[in-house]
C-alpha cells in the first residue's frame, strides 16, 4: 500500500510550500497569510524512487471559531487517516502554545511522527531548533521548504519506516493474482458489480450514495476451464464533486480510492448509462490514466433504456472518451448480470498488455520501420535522428527511445510513435508511455587545440583580410 503522509501545524508555517515541494507541483496556494488553506488537499509524490501520498491540512491554532474550528477538527482527523505525520513548526517565530497543543495530541496517537522546523534559511539551524526540544518529541529536523533544502533527507527519513513497494506487492501479486479496482461515482453500481463478479453478496449494497466508505480488498479464485485463476477485487468508495462532500469521513475516502488505483493492476471504471457521462466520470478516468493503469470501461444500467437514449450515450462516448480509446467498453447490467462475464476477458487482455516484455532488438527493428515510413521533422536544418529503443518498465509499458535532438520532437510525432507501437505490438487496454533521451556530444565543452601550423595559417588569413579591407577603402 502506498504510504499516506499528513502535514500538520499552526497556520502559516509552510505546510502548503512543503506540499508543493513533495508533489513537485503548484497545486496548493501559497501566500504569506495565515489560514489560506481551508480544506485538505491531497497529492501524489515520488522521491528517491518511492511513491507516496501527501495531505495538506488547514492550520491548527487552538482558538478557532466557525469554519476554522471545523477545518481544525478535520486536520486532526487527517492524523488518524495518515500512516505518518510531519509536524511542521516555524523556526523564525519560535515555540508557540499551539505547537504544544498539537504535540500533546500527537503523543496520544500511535502514528509515527516527525518534528520538522521550517524557515531555517538564513539563520543558524542549531539556534532555530533549540526551542523545540522543549516539546519532548523526536529530534527536530531543520528544513527550508521554500528552497527545498533538507526536504529530500526528510522524506527519506519518513519512508524508511515503510517497506519497499516491490517487497510489499510482489508476493501478494503471486498469491492473489490480478488486482482489479472498481471505481466510479457514488451509486453507479460498483458494489453490485463486485457482488455479481464474485457470484455472492460480499459487500453491502443499498440504494443510497456513499454506502461504501473504505476500499475493500476481496481475494478469490474463479474457475476458468480446468484451471482456478486467482484475483483480488477492490471495491472503492464513490468519489463525488467537492461541493457535494458533507461528511469528513467521506472526504478521506478519496485518498483510499487513489490508493486502490495505484495498488491495482487493472481498473474497471463504472459509469451510469441512465445519467450519461459526467465531468466527475472523466476526472476518475484521469486519476487512473495519471497512474498509467490498464483500463476497462463498464457502462452500467444499460437494461431498460430506450434505443434513442442508448444511441445518445454511444455518441457521448465517441466524443468525450477519445483520450481513453485504447480501453475496451462494455455495456452491462450489474443487477441482472448481462455482459458482466465479458469483463474478465478484457481484464486479462489489459493485464497481459500492461505486463508484457519486449526485447530490445524487436523494439529497435520496429522503430526503424516506423521511422522509415515517416521521418521525424527537420530542426534548425538538421534531421532528428531516432537510433534505438528498449523497454524501461511495465504497467504501463514504458519505451525509451535514444537519438539526437529528441527534446525537439513534436507532440504530433510522439503520438504517431505511440499509435504505431500500440498497433504492431498489439497492446490493448493499457496506456503506453515513451521517454526520449538524447546522446551527448563527446566534444561538447572541449576546446579545439590548434597545431602550430594551423595557428600560422590563421594569422596569415587575418592579415590578408585586413589588407583587403584597406584596399577597398582606398
From TrEMBL:
Residues 3-166, 178-355 form the EngA-type G domain. Residues 438-461 have a biased composition (Basic and acidic residues). SUPFAM superfamilies: P-loop containing nucleoside triphosphate hydrolases (SSF52540). PROSITE patterns: G_ENGA. GTP 2 binds at residues 184-191, 235-239, 300-303. GO terms for biological process: ribosome biogenesis. Keywords: GTP-binding, Nucleotide-binding, Repeat, Ribosome biogenesis. GTP 1 binds at residues 9-16, 56-60, 118-121. Residues 438-474 are annotated as: Disordered. GO terms for molecular function: GTP binding; ribosome binding. Belongs to the TRAFAC class TrmE-Era-EngA-EngB-Septin-like GTPase superfamily. EngA (Der) GTPase family. Associates with the 50S ribosomal subunit. GTPase that plays an essential role in the late steps of ribosome biogenesis. NCBIfam families: GTPase_EngA (TIGR03594), small_GTP (TIGR00231). This is GTPase Der. It comes from Motiliproteus coralliicola.
Amino acid at each position: 500500500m502506498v504510504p499516506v503522509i499528513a502535514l500538520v501545524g499552526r497556520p502559516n508555517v509552510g505546510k502548503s510550500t512543503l506540499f508543493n515541494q513533495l508533489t513537485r507541483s503548484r497545486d496548493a496556494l501559497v501566500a504569506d497569510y495565515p489560514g489560506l488553506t481551508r480544506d485538505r488537499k491531497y497529492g501524489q509524490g515520488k522521491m528517491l524512487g518511492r511513491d507516496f501520498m501527501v495531505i495538506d491540512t488547514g492550520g491548527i491554532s487552538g482558538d478557532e471559531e466557525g469554519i476554522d474550528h471545523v477545518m481544525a477538527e478535520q486536520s486532526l482527523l487527517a492524523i488518524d487517516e495518515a500512516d505518518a505525520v510531519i509536524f511542521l513548526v516555524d523556526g523564525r517565530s519560535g515555540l508557540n502554545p499551539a505547537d504544544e497543543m498539537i504535540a500533546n495530541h500527537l503523543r496520544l496517537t500511535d502514528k509515527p511522527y516527525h518534528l520538522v522546523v521550517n524557515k531555517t534559511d538564513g539563520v543558524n539551524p542549531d539556534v532555530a531548533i533549540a526551542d523545540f526540544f522543549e516539546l519532548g518529541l523526536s529530534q527536530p529536523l531543520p528544513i527550508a521548504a521554500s528552497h527545498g533544502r533538507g526536504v529530500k533527507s526528510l522524506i527519506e527519513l519518513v519512508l524508511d519506516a515503510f517497506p519497499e513497494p516491490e517487497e510489499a506487492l510482489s508476493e501478494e501479486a503471486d498469491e492473489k493474482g490480478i488486482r482489479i479496482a472498481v471505481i466510479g461515482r457514488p451509486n453507479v453500481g460498483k458494489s453490485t458489480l463486485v457482488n455479481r463478479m464474485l457470484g455472492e453478496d460480499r459487500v453491502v449494497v443499498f440504494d443510497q450514495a456513499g454506502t461504501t466508505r473504505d476500499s475493500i480488498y476481496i481475494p478469490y479464485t474463479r474457475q476458468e476451464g480446468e484451471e482456478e485463476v486467482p484475483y483480488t477485487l477492490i471495491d472503492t468508495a464513490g468519489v463525488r464533486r467537492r461541493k457535494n462532500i458533507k461528511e469528513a469521513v467521506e472526504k478521506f475516502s478519496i485518498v483510499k480510492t487513489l490508493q486502490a488505483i495505484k495498488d491495482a493492476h487493472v481498473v474497471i471504471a463504472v459509469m451510469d448509462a441512465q445519467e450519461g457521462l459526467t465531468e466527475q466520470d472523466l476526472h476518475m478516468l484521469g486519476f487512473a490514466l495519471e497512474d498509467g493503469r490498464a483500463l476497462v470501461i463498464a457502462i452500467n444500467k444499460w437494461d431498460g433504456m430506450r434505443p434513442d437514449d442508448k444511441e445518445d450515450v454511444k455518441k457521448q462516448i465517441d466524443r468525450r472518451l477519445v483520450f481513453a480509446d485504447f480501453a475496451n467498453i462494455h455495456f452491462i447490467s450489474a443487477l441482472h448480470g448481462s455482459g458482466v462475464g465479458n469483463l474478465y476477458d478484457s481484464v486479462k487482455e489489459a493485464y497481459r498488455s500492461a505486463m508484457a516484455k519486449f526485447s530490445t532488438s524487436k523494439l529497435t527493428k520496429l522503430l526503424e520501420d516506423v521511422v522509415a515510413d515517416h521521418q521525424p521533422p527537420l530542426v534548425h536544418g538538421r534531421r532528428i535522428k531516432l537510433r534505438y529503443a528498449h523497454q524501461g518498465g511495465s504497467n504501463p509499458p514504458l519505451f525509451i527511445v535514444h537519438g539526437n535532438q529528441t527534446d525537439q520532437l513534436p507532440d504530433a510525432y510522439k503520438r504517431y510513435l505511440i499509435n504505431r507501437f500500440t498497433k504492431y505490438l498489439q497492446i490493448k487496454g493499457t496506456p503506453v508511455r515513451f521517454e526520449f533521451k538524447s546522446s551527448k556530444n563527446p566534444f561538447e565543452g572541449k576546446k579545439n587545440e590548434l597545431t602550430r601550423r594551423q595557428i600560422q595559417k590563421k594569422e596569415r588569413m587575418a592579415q590578408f583580410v585586413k589588407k583587403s579591407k584597406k584596399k577597398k577603402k582606398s
